[in-house]
# Entry
Amino acid sequence: MLDAIDTRLLAALQKNAHLTAHQLGELLNLSPSQAGRRRQRLESDGYITSYAARLDPLKLGLHVQGFVQVHLGTHGPDQSASFARMVDTRPEITSAWTMTGEADYLLHVYCIDLPALNRLLHEVILPHPAVARVQSQIVMDQLKRDAPLPT
# Structure
């Protein structure tokens, strides 16, 4: 079970994963060793799954961000597994979800330009044997960046 200190620690680490045990201790009114032990426990219990750097897509030349709804023509374990393998191999696809509703999958993609997005759609996703159709939406502006999870 998480207590109030754990949730404050998780919130602080989501904002800055580089916080040292000393800095966490100061934020949480704990000794550095207590803060470090709490962090280790939250890691071993699976609350903290990894640490990663957030990169600026524009600085990396990724000027097109989009969402692609994928509708399968055939549904079955083999088709789903095959589609999941294809998604996993494509670095342009940064997130993928199975969905309720009309679309079977929602893909979050980053591409260098519109021709690259077109190639991803027409040379990779649409030719997949299980895919019937796709609907893409290009992000014009992102109002809120991926935010920390509520704690």
The two ends are 13 Å apart (CA to CA). The mean pLDDT is 96. The CA atoms of residues 51 and 127 lie 35 Å apart.
